[in-house]
Fold:
Amino acid sequence: MNGVNVLEQLQDSLRNEIRKAVIESGLAKVDEVPDVVLETPKDKVHGDVATNMAMQLSRIARRNPRDIAEHLARHIDKRAAHVEKIEIAGPGFINFFLDKSVLTDIVATVLTQ
Structure:
């Protein structure tokens, strides 16, 4: 397995945890959950990856995006998502700081190959 595949797996885990948090928190039904889009912030101060899921859910959940983001952040299983820290920014962006030990494993995998 190469480093890119490991990074893709990390992002897939995070997407799954975000989906689960949306459903478990009652913000949307299974068939209403929008696709989870993860982006890499231009400035690393904003984390390793970010999502605008809260803004996507505001119409479905009929709530303020920032409130939705805070609600989601409390329901995401950080360990399962390999996330060290979650921050809410601006109108409801959710910034994720990946667990550095997992990132170290990726570097080790790439170097071995």
